[in-house]
């Protein structure tokens, strides 16, 4: 499978770091069809997942039911929905970028919680024309800036599965403002 967001397998980054991530409550932001939410639920996390696309929400709920997994799938527009503060041990976000949502993601993590984030870098648009709008792409080192103050476990930029992406695995400081 490729790293593309329409794949059925979880992103390689999430699989690679799974055993180093804090167990407990997880949130999959803009889950799409739920490949990461399903993966985390199967691995023992208590998962909330937010997605606005009704078809994707229904597909994830059905897939979870068929596999005997419990996922709290929330059909909501992230422009309106508010993430609960200090709630999650782990937040994942793959191939979705809304810079206005970053402060909520930071606040929704418990101290010591981890963000696993991967999305398109601007080089992807320059080389391949996708996404069509530049504002949906990260500039060089931007992901590090968006999570400034977090403790970086891993940060990468470059080709991932045939596309240009930036990724970050970082924990919110304990006892700080992160």
Notable characteristics:
178 residues; alpha/beta; seven-stranded mixed beta sheet; 6 helices; 7 strands
Largest sheet: 7 strands, mixed
Give the rounded overall mean pLDDT: 93
- Tell me the quaternary state: single chain
Unreliable residue stretches = 1-6
- The portion of residues forming beta strands comes to 25-35%
Gross geometry: globular
User: H/E series, N to C?
Assistant: HEHEHEEHEHHEE
Radius of gyration: 15 Å
How many E strands? 7
Distance between the termini: 34 Å
Helical residue percent? 25-40%
**Strand arrangement in the largest pleated sheet:** 3-2-1-4-5-7-6
Describe the protein's architecture and organization.
By secondary structure, this protein is of the alpha/beta class. It has helices at residues 12-17, 35-42, 54-67, 102-108, 122-128, 142-146, and strands at 25-29, 46-51, 71-75, 88-94, 109-120, 151-160, 163-171.
Topology:
Layout: H1 12-17, E1 25-29, H2 35-42, E2 46-51, H3 54-67, E3 71-75, E4 88-94, H4 102-108, E5 109-120, H5 122-128, H6 142-146, E6 151-160, E7 163-171
Short summary:
The chain has 178 residues and is α/β, with parallel strands linked by helices. It has helices at 12-17, 35-42, 54-67, 102-108, 122-128, 142-146; strands spanning 25-29, 46-51, 71-75, 88-94, 109-120, 151-160, 163-171. A seven-stranded mixed β-sheet has the order 3-2-1-4-5-7-6, with helices on both faces.
């Amino acid at each position: 499978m490729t790293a593309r967001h329409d794949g059925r397998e979880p992103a390689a980054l999430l699989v690679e770091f799974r055993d180093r991530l804090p167990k407990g409550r997880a949130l999959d932001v803009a889950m799409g069809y739920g490949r990461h939410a399903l993966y985390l639920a199967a691995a023992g996390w208590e998962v909330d997942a937010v997605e606005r696309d009704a078809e994707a929400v229904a597909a994830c709920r059905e897939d979870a039911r068929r596999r005997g997994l419990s996922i709290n799938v929330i059909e909501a527009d992230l422009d309106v929905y508010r993430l609960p503060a200090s709630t999650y041990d782990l937040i994942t976000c793959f191939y979705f970028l809304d810079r206005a949502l970053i402060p909520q993601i930071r606040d929704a993590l418990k101290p010591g919680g981890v963000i696993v984030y991967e999305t398109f870098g601007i080089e992807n648009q320059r080389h391949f024309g996708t996404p069509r709008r530049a504002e949906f792409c990260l500039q060089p080192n931007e992901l590090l800036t968006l999570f400034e103050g977090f403790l970086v476990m891993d940060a990468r930029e470059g080709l991932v599965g045939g596309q240009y992406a930036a990724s970050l695995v970082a924990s919110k400081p304990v006892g700080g403002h992160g």
